[in-house]
């Protein structure tokens, strides 16, 4: 099912923040080093001239350009260049703004689900490893609560925050914080999407802080060592360079409730666009434990990485890209594979 290639590639320590600009560049966190891919054509050649999207599990969904001689769709391990074949997906079928999440950490497992979300409309694509085709699904989770003067025609809500725990997808929306959504797909060649809801106590008071002064809030669902976490970052007034309130919660499934925590253990949560949330071993990758590594796309200092200590609230800034990139060139994470004997959950 998965064919490993033996193509030697220049070493790039993961996790890294990657960006496509005039040159394809990556900032390696362990090395604190900026690499320019266009100057090293042998580095990750699979990502040149293709459409791809990184997953929180470390695999990269690659869809070859329609103009290539052979149309290929596969999951790529960027560290070893091994591949897991998937049913063919046309590049034109992928939404322009997209997010990909796997149902499990081991993409080599028969039946592992691959989910692609359209970040601008209520639509998604799904397939299984070893399956024969992708299926497209629409869904209805209600409409945005927007004033008629701003939006005369009700606009359908779509999912932003998504994570997978135990083979099931979970989603969360900040303005319905009293609910956690569930998503499952039936077996068979024509899988059906089944959505459900877990009622949880509202987080409004603690989650938002002073809601009247709040100007924006970012949320991220993160799977870490088999648990589901929610990280929230709120801003107040017109200050977007530094967060006003940062909270991390762990889902207590036995009580159907979020529990605020200041200890995520020897883990680092990697947060970015689009509502991307991943977890990896801190000591295994020379990162700071119990910290959120967060790409702040709201800030004018968009080239800086924020490192937030969950326990004591200390905030550190790391400069990644020393140029004036367009805001449209949003950096994204490529993270180490979660399935690893050396860098597992410990």
TrEMBL record:
UniProt domain KIB1-4 beta-propeller: residue ranges: 27-309
Checking InterPro entries in the record gives: KIB1-4_b-propeller (IPR005174)
Pfam families from the xrefs?
Beta-prop_KIB1-4
Q: What is this protein called?
A: KIB1-4 beta-propeller domain-containing protein
Question: Which species is the source of this protein?
Answer: Eragrostis curvula
